[in-house]
Amino acid sequence: xxxxxxxxxxxxxxxxxxxxxxxxxxxxxxxxxxxxxxxxxxxxxxxxxxxxxxxxxxxxxxxxxxx
Length: 67
Hints:
Strand content: under 5%
Distance between the termini: 40 Å
Number of strands: 0
Largest sheet: none
């Protein structure tokens, strides 16, 4: 199903059903982001234990991220 088709199908729902759909989708997105963050934390812990990271200040990190 294409994105446009999904939007068209959502338009066929009542307002209450659309609100419920939005709530369900939002919860799913939040859970997916939470799982992604947990994996990133686990990876960072492994890197730290393997000696592949070093302590840094917020300013040092920002300096490497900003052009």
